[in-house]
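Blinded run. Sample ID left blank on purpose so nobody reads anything into the name before looking at the predicted structure. Input follows.
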Amino acid sequence: MTADLVYLVAGASLLLAVVLPDLLHRWAISAPMVLVAVGMLIGLTPLPDDLPLDPQHNRAAIEHVTELVVLVALMGVGLALDRPLSLRKRESWHRWTATWLLLGVAMPVSIAATALLGWWAGLAAPAALLLGAVLAPTDPVLASDVQVAGPQTGDDHEVDETDEVRFTLTSEAGLNDGLSFPFVYAAILLATEGAVSHWGLEWIAWYAVGKVVVGVAVGIVVGRVLSYVAFRSRSDALRVAERGESLLALAALVASYGAGEVVGGYGFLSVFACAMTFRSAERSHDYHAAMHDVAERLERMLTLFVLLVLGIAVTRGLLSALDWRGVVITLAVLLVVRPLTGWLALLPCRHVMTAGDRGAIAFFGVRGIGSLYYLAYASKEDSVLAQDWLWSTVSFTIVASVLLHGVLATPVMQRLDVSRRAASRGG
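Blinded prediction complete.
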């Protein structure tokens, strides 16, 4: 019976993934909102008691499913970005300034602020730090309504440099999933190794720097190899770009993630770096759009499946440990911590970005499926990191983010688009 229900849920998710985008695009209702709501309604029906919804007993399944969703999303995000990033050109780095400010200032400050909230709520230091690390990164999976639509290709290829909001939110979501991992490891080490003096230097040298560098380097190498094969190989059989074999997107995802993890780097960063590197080759080629389309469709199906299950779990006991402290932290993270840290981090960009753009970037820090992955990953290491309260609070934050950001994304982005077009005509 349980297996049959899994097939039913998966089939319903696939059907909704096909029809919802066109049905909802005119309204301030996102597909994630609908799926969570439908899941909650299904959870209120008399379902079997043995459904695999308890995170304590199904941690491994949650970890691997959410890991796959994030990986597919990262590949899609990397392929969608048109603005190049050349490691050897200072001007190229400068055009990503807003992204670096969010990653280097807003994210660590958000982690610290959320960890302090967790400590205030009575959590032990490792659990408080994990809460901060889990809720700090924005989500590449659920933020599609405020991200770039996809790669611009073709003979008339021209990169749109005016939409700084969508570019910044997209690039941030692609990078901060991997860059939050050092703080997850810090929480694990604090729980398992004790005082910071026992592991602090190792954490800085390897977890905060070494694994980041290795992950990015592996992704660049894999991306260059695959782009050479796809576009410039001497063998007709290997030049898959010419015949539009877009499943290479999945091969690139698996190869870059596996290689990054095998050599000890952060696989999430490897996937994003691989996608960005591949995108830098033959930028106007339509093959990039085809690969992005495959990643986007798979991501949509997986995302809606996970959200439907999350909705079912919410009304089947997932929030049983939630209390007023968890609600306060959720509201603080979504309405105070992220908007305030994002706004302050972007102050150096006030001369090149409007106040509205900076406010939108600061506000739309969508929390999502990546948070579930990090919590599942860390919870297996120590019981203090596997508390029911953490699962309830993080899940409630995701649902609240889906609702809050889902309702506001369409009207806010439309308003910004109108203002941008008006400013362009006036200029």
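Unblinding after everyone has recorded impressions. The chain is about 70% helix and 0% strand.
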